[in-house]
């Protein structure tokens, strides 16, 4: 699975004028399932997200996790993370999971996140979403979980 993690002071997702997900301080995570991914990859991604130490401690060192600071998780599906531009200027998304597999893994990740963390919000799978965020730092970290 691929993820782009952004430490935010706030973030929201809007679909057709309605806010469907919103957090204050925490992590905005853009998520993409790749072909061949399964629940094992989703479980490892969630474990990494919850323990990733990218929040500052008293000494201003990135030493705290989203769990340590009581921050939110905003999980947003984004198959375009699998873009391959090596063959030209039009991206290929052949590496992304098929839509039904992507939806199943995204929903599984969301379900597991709700069970493991108190503040979880989401986007809407396969929707035209408007994502608003204030990147804190900025801190942006790409993850690939195989």
Molecular structure report:
- With 146 residues, the chain is of the alpha/beta class.
- It has one domain (2-144): 3-Layer(bba) Sandwich (D-tyrosyl-trna(Tyr) Deacylase, Chain: A).
- The protein is 24% helix and 39% strand.
- It contains three helices and eight strands, in the order E-E-E-H-E-E-H-E-H-E-E.
- It has helices at 39-51, 66-69, 99-116; strands at residues 2-15, 18-23, 26-32, 55-56, 62-64, 72-77, 120-122, 129-144.
- The strands form two sheets. Strands 1, 2, 3, 6, 7 and 8 form a six-stranded mixed beta sheet that branches. Strands 4-5 form a two-stranded antiparallel sheet.
- Strand 1 and strand 2 (18-23) form a beta hairpin.
- Helix 1 packs across helix 3.
- The longest helix is centred in the last third of the chain and has 18 residues, at 99-116.
- It starts with a strand and ends with a strand.
- The model has no long low-confidence stretch (mean pLDDT 97).
Quick recap:
This protein is an alpha/beta fold. It has one domain: 3-Layer(bba) Sandwich (D-tyrosyl-trna(Tyr) Deacylase, Chain: A), CATH 3.50.80.10.
Q: What descriptors fit this protein?
A:
two-stranded antiparallel sheet, D-tyrosyl-trna(Tyr) Deacylase, Chain: A, alpha/beta, 146 residues
Shape: globular
Spell out the CATH superfamily. Answer: D-tyrosyl-tRNA(Tyr) deacylase
Low-confidence stretches: none
Question: What is the total domain count?
Answer: 1
The count of DSSP E runs of length 2 or more, i.e. the number of strands, is 8
CATH topology: D-tyrosyl-trna(Tyr) Deacylase, Chain: A
Residues in helix, %: 10-25%
Counting copies of identical and different chains, the oligomeric state is: single chain
The CATH architecture: 3-Layer(bba) Sandwich
- Give the SSE string: EEEHEEHEHEE
Number of helices: 3
* Residue fraction in strands: 35-45%
